Amino acid sequence: MSELKIFQKTETLHEARWWEPEPGGKAHCYLCPRHCHIGEGQAGFCFIRVNQGGKLYSLGYASPAALQIDPIEKKPLNHFLPGTRVFSLGTAGCNMGCFFCQNWDISKSKQDQVNSAHVPPEDVPLLALQYGCPTIAFTYNEPTIWGEYVVDICKAAKEHGVKTVMVTNGYITREAFHDIYDHVDAANVDLKAFTENFYGKITLTHLQPVLEMLQWLKAETDVWFELTNLMIPTLNDDPGETRKLCDWILENLGPDVPLHFTAFHPDFKLRDKPRTPPETLHRAYGIARQAGLHFVYEGNIHGGHGETICPSCETVLIRRAWHEIVAYRLTAAGSCLTCGHKIPGRWASPDGKVAALSSFNGEAVQRKYQALNL
Question: How many domains, in total, are found in the chain?
Fold first, then answer.
């Protein structure tokens, strides 16, 4: 086990990737489809990619503004190491402008407006192991915008057998996609709606780049991924739109990609809409199942469809109460105990035991980061 470096807060700027210089000292950032052209002393739309002296720097590198231990089901991921805990971190900023953002306090903030800790990438998997987490999640704000930090954490995590997860809006360019996702083990992608009107007016972005990213994930990587559709009353909950979304998933991604319909609650700039009624999620669930999707879930409501059902024999394989597993009927390899059908996913024992955790000595990590108060 490598020794941890002495804790030290640093303000050293980390030069960004995925950019090119332009005449007049501007920097063209091509990390996401916004293609920001950033002037001297200015930041891109995301707030944390800044031009200083004609070079682009990432203010989010090694500077997480949020650190927390979550159940993996909260990401939400239901087919990736179910029942385990995940070490979650995020920074400031975002490359979308969602009016309904539920983490707006950091995603709509600049780096100097949040309290951040200096956590170098090589320490992140050590912290994860210290807190009994076999996985690290890049989450809370959009991790694409701190892709340099993501990649370096992933490289360090692999040395310790720790998995990595992107919780993302999917807004990334072709040029940066493989640079990041070739290092990642799993992802949950927010497919926020299925109309360009919603994306343009409510997220200040576009739908097509997200659909293209999902096709790249399916066709060109081994990343396990699941989808989330947050249903907002009157904006993206029309049954016709839901059917089109499900049909697109079936045609382009296949029936085995899990789809989570989750309930909206009023937040940030979208406080004039009511909470999503459970009946809306139930209706969407029925549409998705009727369309032919095998694994459909409801989130953010009590008593919703949270069970994993075998598509072959209809046995309930995993029963959940909110984010907790209360029944588990899969083999270690992820097969149905009733009929033997192999369920797509990345499986582990529901108690979350991982070999790497049993031999890990985390005293040095604990001493160094005891003030983080996780």
Answer: 2
